[in-house]
Design a protein that fits this description.
By secondary structure, the protein is mostly helical. 65% of the residues lie in helices and 7% in strands.
Length: 389
C-alpha cells in the first residue's frame, strides 16, 4: 500500500492531467484513495500559508494544488443506448458521463462521505470521468492475436473520441503556483520529488512535500534569472558582440540587466521558507558577479587601444633611432670616428626594426588589417566625428 501511495502521489504531483483507471464504476473506495492523497495536498497548502503568511507575494489559500483528475471507467454497462451509430449518439453518451460524475461527487449527508468529496474538491481544479464499454470477449481469450477487427466497434469509437479529447483539447502543461512550467523546470521538480519518494515505504509528510517543491521552485528561479542576465549581456558584450563598450556604459548595462534578473527571481521564488529563498538569491547574485567578470574580459579584448604595445614600441624605437641618427649626422664632424660609429649603429637599429615589421606584416597581414580597423575605432573614440550642421 505504501509503494502504491508513493507512485500515485508522485504521478499526481508531476501531472497536469491525472487519469485514475477503475473498473465498472467509481466506487467509494476509489474516492477514498484519491481523497487520501488530496488531504496531503491540502496540508501542503496550509503549511505554505503558515510558512509565508507574512509575505505579500505568498500564494492564496484558495489556489488548488492539482489541475485535473479524471476517472477512466472501463467495462461500463449502463449506457441508455448500447448500439450508437452517429456522432449525436456518442455526444449523448458523453452527456451521460457528465451527469454520472456529477452524481458521484455531489454532496452526501453522511459525514465521512461528505468529507471525502470535500477533500477532492479542495485539491483538484476539475474532476471528470470517461466511460468505456467492454472491448469484447474475443480480446479476453487466450488465443487473441491482437487483431483490431475483433474489438467491439463501440469501444473503438469511444476510445478514439477519448484520445482526441485528451490530446487535442484537454491536456495542458503542468502549472505550479499559477505558472506553467518549462521542460527544464519540470525536470527539477522530477528530481526533487523522486528524492522525496525514494524509499517508497511511507508517504512523505506535508512539510517534506513543501520543502521539495520550494527547493525545485528556487532552482528554477535561479536558472531563469541567470539565463535572463546572460541573454541580455550577450548582446552587448558576449562572444558574438562586435564592438567595444566603454566602461561606464558597460557598468550601466550590467546594473540594468542584473536588476531585471533579480526582479524575475523575486517574482518566482515566493514559495517556502525565507531562508532558502535568500540563499538562492545570494547564489544568483554570485553567478551574476562571475558572469560579469567574464563579460568584462571579453569586452576588454575588443578594446581598440589594447595590445598595441606589440606594434608601437618597435615603431617608436625605430623612429627614435632615425631622429638621433639625423641629429648625429647634422651635428658631428665628418672626420669623427665616434660620431660615424654612432650613426651607423643607430641606422642598423631602425633598419633591423623595419625589417622585423616587414616580416610581421607579411606573416600577419590579416591581424594587421584588424588592427587598422581598431585604429579607426580608436580614433572614433578619442576624436568623435563632428556632425554636419
Amino acid at each position: 500500500m505504501g509503494l502504491t501511495a508513493a507512485i500515485f502521489g508522485m504521478s499526481t504531483l508531476l501531472s497536469s492531467y491525472s487519469i485514475y483507471n477503475v473498473s465498472k464504476l467509481i466506487g467509494e473506495d476509489a474516492l477514498q484513495h484519491l481523497a487520501l492523497f488530496s488531504e496531503y495536498g491540502r496540508m501542503a497548502l496550509n503549511a505554505e500559508d503558515d510558512d509565508s503568511a507574512s509575505s505579500s507575494s505568498s500564494s492564496s489559500s484558495a489556489e488548488k494544488p492539482f489541475q485535473k483528475v479524471e476517472f477512466l471507467v472501463r467495462d461500463w454497462q449502463n449506457f441508455d443506448n448500447d448500439d450508437p451509430q452517429t456522432d449525436e449518439d456518442f455526444e449523448e453518451m458523453e452527456r451521460e458521463m457528465d451527469e454520472y460524475v456529477k452524481g458521484v461527487i455531489k454532496e452526501r449527508d453522511a459525514k465521512d462521505l461528505a468529507e471525502t468529496r470535500q477533500q477532492i474538491a479542495t485539491c483538484f481544479e476539475k474532476v471528470d470521468c470517461y466511460l468505456l464499454t467492454h472491448p469484447g470477449f474475443e480480446v479476453t481469450k487466450k488465443k487473441y492475436d491482437g487483431d483490431p477487427k475483433l474489438i467491439e466497434p463501440t469501444f473503438v469509437a469511444l476510445l478514439d473520441r477519448y484520445c482526441k479529447k485528451v490530446f487535442n483539447s484537454e491536456l495542458e502543461p503542468k502549472r505550479i503556483h499559477g505558472r506553467y512550467l518549462t521542460s527544464q523546470e519540470l525536470a527539477e521538480y522530477v528530481k526533487a520529488y523522486a528524492k522525496m519518494f525514494k524509499t517508497g515505504s511511507e508517504f512523505p509528510q506535508a512539510t517534506t512535500m513543501l520543502a521539495a517543491t520550494a527547493e525545485a521552485n528556487n532552482t528554477n528561479a535561479k536558472s531563469l534569472a541567470v539565463a535572463k542576465y546572460k541573454s541580455e549581456m550577450d548582446r552587448w558584450a558576449g562572444p558574438s558582440a562586435l564592438s567595444y563598450t566603454p566602461p561606464e556604459e558597460f557598468e550601466k548595462h550590467h546594473v540594468a540587466c542584473a536588476s531585471a534578473a533579480l526582479e524575475l527571481f523575486d517574482g518566482m521564488a515566493n514559495f517556502g521558507s525565507k531562508g532558502p529563498i535568500d540563499e538562492a538569491r545570494a547564489d544568483v547574485e554570485a553567478q551574476i558577479g562571475n558572469a560579469k567578470d567574464v563579460y568584462f574580459t571579453l569586452n576588454e579584448g575588443r578594446n581598440p587601444l589594447a595590445g598595441w604595445e606589440t606594434y608601437y614600441l618597435p615603431v617608436l624605437i625605430a623612429l627614435g633611432s632615425w631622429v638621433l641618427r639625423t641629429i648625429t649626422d647634422l651635428t658631428c664632424s665628418g672626420w669623427s670616428e665616434t660620431c660615424k660609429a654612432g650613426s651607423d649603429a643607430l641606422g642598423q637599429i631602425y633598419g633591423i626594426v623595419l625589417i622585423f615589421m616587414l616580416i610581421v606584416g607579411a606573416t600577419k597581414a590579416k591581424q594587421i588589417g584588424e588592427k587598422l580597423g581598431q585604429i579607426k575605432s580608436a580614433m572614433q573614440l578619442v576624436m568623435p566625428h563632428e556632425k554636419a550642421s
